[in-house]
Amino acid sequence: MHKNILAVAIGGALGTIIRYLLNIYTLFVGYPIGTIIENLLGSLLLGFLTGWFLNRNPREWLKVGLGVGFCGGFTTMSTFAADSLYLVTEVSPLSSFIYIVISLFGGVLLAFSGLVVGRRYWSKEKLVEKAGDSQ
Length: 135
Fold this sequence. Notes:
Layout: H1 2-26, H2 33-54, H3 60-74, H4 77-91, H5 93-134
């Protein structure tokens, strides 16, 4: 239990720091591109980890540290919501709509893609292990 909490704390801190830096370096764009990148990459990574871990027996602290901690700290629902409201009230409803569509559909599509790639990666890794064991 303590390992899990520590893993989530470390993963969350790392994910949050990387998210913060990405936002700082993309502020000049004037559009919340940093949040889009974070949420799309985080969805892809979490999908990949889920696909990979589904067929493995990872240590719980690794699973929660990477998934809940890192991916949870790296992605951000609250900033997505705030950015959506900012765009609709200060820029244009169309701009907000595009942002929401890219974020939601892109996130789900990338999470699914990551899941597929993660499962395939595990399958290839497993086949290599089996081939090595039979020799």
